[in-house]
């Protein structure tokens, strides 16, 4: 019989895909640089798993106690909103964000609020020294006797600290800086991050403590490390914000204990981070008079309606290829709306430079902001301001129709609360196709709500269509 030989296989650390030779890009998940060599015994082998003793006896699901999965308030209301009510004992939470966005400041605030409720908390820092964290704690008033601090980069030492301190919550800053001595690779590598995360999750489940890990992001905005890291934890949060603004948003992209795509708003200042209960004013400007090229959109961030101002500037282009520039808006969405305005509204901008942006660094991805962008473009083209105190919301289809958006009553209630006088919304889906003009005019909470079946009807309602422009030119020429 031929002696068994040892050959080398290559495995992707992201998804587990295997190949006989090394490649730079995984053939399954398309990740670059994730394929590593692993030794495998040659020849056909069979593995047989035998029965083993159980750790806990299986019981009917109705007899499983549910009191262990109750949310406990973190002391930061905006974070509790994102988490679905608070932190859950035994849960593993991953908070990811760009460098300098305020991840460490936020979690130090959460750790201090938890310690103030006489719940022992352990903050493990692998990126800064203990003195650096103490200086931040003094600046943000986060010093408490029940808040313990440890500067460690070894996984075994971190687990020992947890055994000795016995906290109710552990913050690890960050998971990419902690390394396991018995695992090959450098801290932050695929294998190391996976091992560290698995050990911390096991500790959280076995001791019924909450573990919050800070994660780095790549230049593309994804979480650094293996994709399995997001599968291991119970909650994945993204911390978003611009360096040019103090406004920050925490968004839930995975939550086993609450809703996803919920957001929390914060203000990052020199004295720490503070929750923003009503962030609408950050994304709108109060103009002294009517300004052409502006319109207010009502967008939904999770379950929260937010008002944001959309601005546009349309100028005749001196170049052969006009520019299309956006800030806070999707460039492909702008191109689609320009095509709809040309085809169905007669607004031809193929020889004009078009600039569109939002106020305050807001990012609008909700299709319900399409109508506000169309109104701003038409207003800038005709140099005619829309009526004062008007908001516009609705998704624009390629045939020029206005489609209903989700949570319309909540959007209208928020606009009425802030004192807006008129809202233009899509008509009822049962309205006959091709009908011109508003379908219905009604009053909601003191605000006039007008329904329009298509974008041309909405522009005519606001005196922003091509026919109105022609009438204005005739009047000006007569004068």
What's this model, at a glance?
With 479 residues, the chain is an alpha/beta fold.
How far do the termini sit from each other? 106 Å
Give the overall average pLDDT. 85
The CATH fourth-level homologous superfamily of the largest domain? P-loop containing nucleotide triphosphate hydrolases
Structural class: alpha/beta
CATH topology of the largest domain: Rossmann fold
Count of DSSP strands: 22
Total of DSSP H or I helical runs spanning 4+ residues: 11
What Rg do the Cα atoms give? Answer: 28 Å
Task: Report the portion of residues in β strands.
Answer: 25-35%
Largest sheet: 9 strands, mixed
Strand numbers in spatial order across the main sheet: 6-5-7-8-4-9-10-11-12
Count of the separate structural domains: 3
Helix content: 25-40%
> Unreliable runs, pLDDT <50, ≥5 residues?
41-46, 432-438, 470-479
Backbone shape: globular
Question: Given this structure, which CATH class of the largest domain is correct?
Answer: Alpha Beta
Just name the CATH architecture of the largest domain.
Answer: 3-Layer(aba) Sandwich
């Amino acid at each position: 019989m031929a002696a068994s030989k040892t050959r080398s296989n290559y495995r992707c650390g992201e998804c587990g895909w295997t190949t006989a030779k090394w490649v730079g890009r995984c053939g399954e998940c398309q990740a670059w640089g994730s394929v590593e060599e692993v030794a495998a015994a040659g020849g056909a082998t069979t593995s047989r798993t035998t029965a083993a003793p159980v750790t806990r006896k299986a019981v009917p699901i109705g007899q499983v106690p549910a009191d262990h999965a109750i949310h406990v308030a973190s002391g930061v209301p905006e974070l509790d909103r994102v988490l679905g009510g608070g932190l859950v004992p035994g849960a593993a939470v991953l908070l990811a964000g760009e460098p300098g966005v305020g991840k460490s400041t936020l979690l130090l605030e959460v750790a201090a609020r938890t310690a103030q409720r006489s719940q022992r908390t352990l903050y493990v820092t692998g990126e800064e020294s203990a003195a650096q964290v103490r200086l931040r704690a003094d600046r943000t008033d986060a010093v408490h006797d029940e808040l313990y601090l440890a500067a460690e980069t070894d996984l075994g030492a971190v687990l020992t600290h947890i055994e000795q301190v016995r906290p109710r919550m552990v913050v690890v800053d960050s998971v990419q800086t902690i390394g396991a001595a018995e695992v090959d690779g450098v801290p932050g590598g695929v294998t190391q991050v996976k091992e560290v995360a698995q050990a911390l999750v096991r500790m959280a489940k076995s001791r019924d403590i909450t573990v919050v890990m800070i994660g780095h992001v790549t230049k593309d905005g994804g979480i650094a490390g293996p994709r399995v890291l997001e599968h291991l934890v119970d909650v994945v949060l993204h911390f978003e914000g611009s360096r040019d603004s103090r406004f920050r948003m925490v968004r839930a992209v995975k939550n086993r204990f609450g809703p996803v795509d919920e957001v929390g708003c914060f203000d990052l200042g020199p004295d720490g981070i503070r929750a923003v209960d009503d962030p609408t004013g950050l994304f709108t400007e109060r103009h002294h008079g009517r300004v052409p090229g502006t319109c207010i959109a009502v967008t939904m961030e999770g379950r929260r309606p937010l008002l944001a101002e959309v601005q546009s500037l349309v100028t005749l282009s001196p170049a052969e290829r006009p520019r299309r520039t956006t800030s806070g808006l999707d460039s492909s969405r702008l191109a689609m709306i320009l095509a709809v305005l040309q085809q169905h509204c007669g607004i031809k901008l193929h020889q004009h430079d078009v600039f569109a942006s939002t106020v305050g660094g807001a990012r609008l991805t909700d299709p319900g902001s399409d109508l506000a962008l169309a109104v701003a473009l038409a207003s800038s083209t005709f140099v005619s301001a829309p009526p004062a105190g008007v908001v516009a919301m609705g998704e624009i289809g390629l045939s020029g129709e206005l489609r209903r958006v989700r949570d319309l009553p909540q959007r209208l209630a928020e606009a009425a609360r802030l004192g807006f006088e008129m809202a233009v919304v899509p008509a009822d889906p049962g309205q006959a196709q091709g009908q011109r003009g508003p379908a219905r005019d009604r009053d909601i909470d003191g605000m006039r709500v007008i329904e329009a079946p298509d974008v041309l009807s909405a522009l005519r309602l606001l005196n922003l269509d091509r026919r109105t422009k022609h009438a204005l030119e005739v009047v000006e020429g007569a004068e």
